[in-house]
Each structure stands twice: as C-alpha cells, then as structure tokens.
Amino acid sequence: MPPKIQYTKGDLLQAAFRLTRAQGLSAVNARAVARELGCSTQPIFRAFHSMEDIRREMLRMAADVYQAYLLRGNDLAPKPYLGSGMAYILFAREERELFRLLFMRDRLSEGDADPAQDQTLEYVLGLVMQSTGLDRGRALAFHRHLWVFTHGLAAMVATRYLKLEDAEVMNLLRDQYRATRLMFGLPPVQDAFDEAEGRTLRQN
Predict the structure, then answer these.
(1) In terms of C-beta density within 10 A (0-12 exposed, 13-18 middle, 19 or more buried), how is residue 50 classed?
(2) Was domain 1-48 assigned CATH 3.40.50?
(3) What would the pLDDT profile of 105-151 be if each residue is shown by its tens digit?
C-alpha cells in the first residue's frame, strides 16, 4: 500500500491562494482546495477550524503581495510617491482578483478595515510628507484626494473597462498630483521633476 501523502498547512494555503489569484475568493471552498491538491477535504479541516480561517489568510497573503508591489514603486517612476500610484495600478492590472479582494469588496458591511491599507498607509504618508513638506494631518487629506483618483483608474484597469499604457498612467497621475498641490496651496513642482519624468516617459 503506497504511503499516504501528508499536506502541511502551508500546502493548503498555497493551493487556496492559487485559486484566489485565478478565480477570486468566492472560488475558495473545501472541495475546490482539495481538488487543487488532489486530496480529500479531511486535511483541510484538520488544519483549519473553518473556511473562514482560510479566507482570513487569503486577505493577509494578498496584502503581502500588494506590499511587495508598493515597495517596487521606486523603480517605476522618478519620484517615490508617483511610483506608489504606479504600483497600485500595476497591481490592479497584473493581480486583478487580489486587487478586487483588497480594494473592491464591501468593507463597511464586514465592519473591518482593509489590512493592506492599514499596513501601507504610514509608508505612503511618509512619501507624501517627503514630497510636499506637509504635516501628517494635511498629508493624509492630500493623499485621500489623490487616492480617490488613482483608485478610479485602477478599478477601470482591474475590470478591463479600459486599457492604459504606463506612459498614460504616469501622465494622468502627474497631472492630478500637480492639481492637488495647487489645491493645498503648495508651490509648483521643480523643473527637475519634469525633466526626470520626461526621461522616464521617453524610455517607455
């Protein structure tokens, strides 16, 4: 009789996460995870109290992926804060189901904060304060104005409502950033900002 295959908790989570990435969290159930691994549902319920435990882990793992994208922002644009916006939209383009899970679900009904936003907000606010010189309170207000705009672009990309090239995204984010600076009474960006952006766009 062949030895019985043992599945670790990590194996089960990775199988569930593959399903989440490909089909969304609604596709994750005990039978689907078991089918993904080629086993029965018994190992799943030995490792987890309920499917809700697995779904919470999916949120955490999705947030980890998003954070990795966010940290790549420095390589996506000449200014780190602009890069964070580019990273958000790139995440929406390349990880559509994870983006929907983190940023397009009914959080109010759940009565729970988005783990990705909670873990990354301070990092992004640091970029805003560095870019604008605003204190934390005004930096938060500044970021909210831009995040609403950026989220709209990302949602259209994630749902394939429209297709945006990187250069178009950068232009849109840059223009909105400049407009928001004016709203907050900040001086226009320096010429070096424009020159750096111009070199990046021409490379794209």
Answers:
(1) exposed
(2) no
(3) 887 777 665 555 567 899 999 999 999 999 999 999 999 999 999 99
